[in-house]
Amino acid sequence: MGCSMEDNIALDTLEDLRNIINANLESMIEEQCSIHGEVAEVAGRILLAGGKRLRPILVHLAYELAGGKNIDEIMPLSLASEFIHTATLVHDDIYDFSKTRRGKPTLHASHGLAHGIIGGDYLFVLGFGLGGKYEAKIVEKMANTCANIASGELLQHEHIGNLATT
After folding, report:
1. Residue 50 φ/ψ region, left for φ over 0, alpha for ψ in the -120 to 50 degree band, beta for the rest
2. 127: closest CA among 89, 79, 162, 91?
3. Residues 128-150: b if buried by 16+ CB within 10 A, e if exposed
């Protein structure tokens, strides 16, 4: 099956958006490294290690579907979703004793448990700092979502090895 011309345009547009998101993430990490040094550097290395950037792309697409036109208006929330997502991955790797992610050593495997925990926390803080620029109801949604993630992780951890878990 081939792609139509319209399909190619849509894919190019999504790839362009992904590139814009990556450039903004790189710029923010560079800025944070000059402010916060090592923690920004090691956490940033994990953040910039790759990924499809689905969450920030979906934030942008939802914004456009709702009639939004100014990409700068939504970029902080878009980046927040990626910072928070990466923070959950860093912490999940610790809980699961994972040594690699995306073919590269995890933060705690390469720098130790303390760096992993602090690096994940740092990414959460950056995400909430960006998302905190929006209305209270958006920040509350972010907080509830993160609370649900934490609750789910704990529940998962409690049921490791229990084959009766549904």
Report:
1. left
2. 79
3. bebbeebeeeeeeebeeebeebe
Distance separating alpha carbons of residues 138 and 60, to the nearest angstrom: 15
pLDDT tens, N- to C-terminus, the chain (166 residues):
344 334 444 546 899 999 999 999 999 999 999 999 999 999 999 999 988 999 999 999 999 999 999 999 999 999 999 999 999 999 999 988 999 988 889 999 999 999 999 999 999 999 999 999 999 999 999 999 999 998 988 888 788 777 887 7
As a whole number of angstroms, the distance between CA 124 and CA 106 comes to: 17
Cβ neighbour number for residue 7 with a 10 Å cutoff? 11
Whether 3 contacts 10, CB under 8 Å: no
Tokens of 148: 């649900």
Please list the residues that pair with 104 across neighbouring strands: 101
Question: pTM for this structure?
Answer: 0.86
Question: For residue 10, how many C-alpha atoms fall within 13 Å in the half-sphere facing its CB?
Answer: 6
Residue whose token pair is 């920030």: 56
Q: Helix count (H) and strand count (E) of the chain?
A: 7, 2
